[in-house]
Amino acid sequence: MHRVGSLMLVVILIAAACAGDVEDDSAPTIAMASSELQAWETASVAFFDRSHEAYPDLDRVFAEYAADAVFYDPTFGDYFIGPEQIVRGWAQMPGAFPDLDTDIQSAFLATDGAAIVAEWVNLWLGEKPPELPWPAGLEVFRFRGDEIAESEIWYTIETLEGPMHSCAGCAVDLRSLADSYVARWSSRDAGEIAALYSEDAIVLDSMFAIEADGAVEIGELAAVRYGSGDAIARAGEPFGMLLDARLIGADSGAAAGDIVGVGVQFSWSAAKGAPTVDSLALLYFGRVNDGVYEAHPANLIVEESVFHDPTSLMALNAGRP
Fold first, then answer.
1. Three-point CA angle 44, 47, 51, nearest 5°
2. 188: left (phi > 0), else alpha (psi -120 to 50), else beta?
3. Which residue in 226, 208, 202, 216 sits closest to 305, CA to CA?
């Protein structure tokens, strides 16, 4: 899938002194100052706007993608490498959806990436019934310097269950997986948390300089990852990635429509009295190798990548000396 061979960060378990009304000194430290967060949000949204305003000129849309950039949308069977292949993969979009427009709803950041919550206006075959929303989801970008190294598409439950996909009940499973993630991390029990992950799973949270490898090590983050504040709580509906038949190999045990990723929106308090942080964890249950999806046989998380709402991070920064 992604992140193989990418920049890896070291787990830093730092006790930071908090000011004001914060009663606990165990809140984790943010890797960016508020001014840096604001600048990074501006730059990420500017890239998003720039690429979408170039549509339907696909060469311009993907002009800032690296030569080996990966575009990943398993729900519709897309796994393209490099701008030329990505443009070919998108070739039918301008003809089918000439007036496609995109509205940003919100953004979550990592130090090297952004997850943009967006609504895709005019992405509809035929006339859209007025009572139905436009398709919506996440556009995730990971940067390498000034270029895009990876991009992905995730979808809201309403979109996955809508007329363009009709996943037939996937909402129950997506919510169940999201609730299990939140409940186990809220427990701060190392064994309960470790049980979510494969033996070789990785967790990356660049904004808090966290990397953990393997289920045991991930479980050991329980006492420090989200500080000592209130238990984390799911905030909003999860996003999902499903599996299209085109990414299933001949010897695979996977099936079309399987859930291959869950994007969990949640909130947490780093310490007693600290501001609430809004976060997004992207959970992957398998990887693509040589264009074929390989699912974990027990449906465990093989990778987790975490993004955070910049406004809530700036509020957390403001409570520090």
1. 145
2. left
3. 202
Q: How many whole angstroms separate alpha carbon 238 and alpha carbon 223? A: 25
Query: For residues 198 and 213, is the Cβ–Cβ distance under 8 A?
Result: no
Please state at what angle helix 34-53 crosses helix 310-318, rounded to 10 degrees.
170
**Alpha-carbon span 116 to 171, nearest angstrom:** 21
Q: Where are the alpha helices (DSSP H) in 215-300?
A: 215-219
The whole-angstrom separation of Cα 301 and Cα 264 is: 13
- Cis amide bond preceding 238, omega within 30: no
**Which segments of 73-214 does DSSP mark as H helices, in order?**
83-89, 93-96, 157-160, 170-187, 190-194
Rounded to two decimals, the pTM is 0.90
For CA atoms 138, 257, 200, 82, the dihedral sign is negative
**Residue pLDDT tens, the chain, 321 long:** 333 333 223 333 322 333 333 344 456 789 999 999 999 999 999 999 999 999 999 999 999 999 999 999 999 999 999 999 999 999 999 999 999 999 999 999 999 999 999 999 999 998 999 999 999 999 999 999 999 999 999 999 999 998 888 888 899 999 999 999 999 999 889 999 999 999 999 999 999 999 999 999 999 998 778 877 667 889 899 999 999 999 998 888 889 999 999 999 999 987 777 889 999 999 999 999 888 999 999 999 999 999 999 999 999 888 665
Residue 301 near residue 200, CB atoms below 8 Å: no
Do residues 276 and 269 touch, judged by C-beta distance below 8 A? yes
Residues 6+ apart with CB under 8 A from 183: none
Contact 182/235 with Cβ under 8 angstroms? no
C-alpha separations of 127 from 97, 100, 164, 166, 283 in Å = 12, 14, 12, 17, 34
CA 222, CA 277: separation in Å to the nearest integer? Answer: 17
Q: Token pair of 24, please? A: 């606990």
